Amino acid sequence: MKKTYTIDVDCANCAAKMEDAANKVDGVKAASVNFMALKMKVEFEDGVEPNDVMKNVLADCRKVEPDCEIFFE
User: Fold this and answer.
1) β-strands 69-71, 2-8: how paired?
2) What integer pLDDT is reported at residue 38 of this predicted model?
3) Average pLDDT over the chain, rounded to an integer
4) Which PROSITE patterns does the record match to this protein (predicted)?
5) CB of 33 within 8 A of CB of 19?
6) Which of 33, 47, 63, 69 could be a cystine partner for 19, CB 3.0 to 4.6 Å?
7) What sign has the CA pseudo-torsion 20, 21, 24, 27?
8) How far apart are CA 50 and CA 11, in angstroms?
């Protein structure tokens, strides 16, 4: 399953850090961040609940960029 989320991040470097963090979360098959569009595309592993995974993605992204936001609920 693939989903696109709106994000709020201040700079392209921070967006790249968010992408790296998202790709390391269990349940994420692939994630990409487009800083110019302020979007994050996430492909999930089979059988996972996207909102549960996205809570972990947001938590890990905030470890590298505390001011970031991902709108998924």
Assistant:
1) antiparallel
2) 97
3) 96
4) HMA_2
5) yes
6) 33
7) negative
8) 26
Q: Are 61 and 29 in contact (CB under 8 A)?
A: no
Residue 2 burial by CB count (10 A; 0-12/13-18/19+): exposed, middle or buried?
exposed
- Beta strand ranges found along the chain (DSSP E): 2-8, 28-34, 39-44, 69-71
Structure token pair of residue 43:
């492909």
**The pLDDT of residue 6 is above 80:** yes
The CATH number of whichever domain residue 64 belongs to comes to 3.30.70.100
Distances (CA, A) of 67 to 7, 9, 33, 45: 11, 7, 16, 27
**What is the residue range of 26's domain?**
2-71
At 61, is the pLDDT very low, low, confident or very high (cuts 50, 70, 90)?
very high
Per-residue pLDDT tens digits for 20-37: 999 999 999 999 999 999
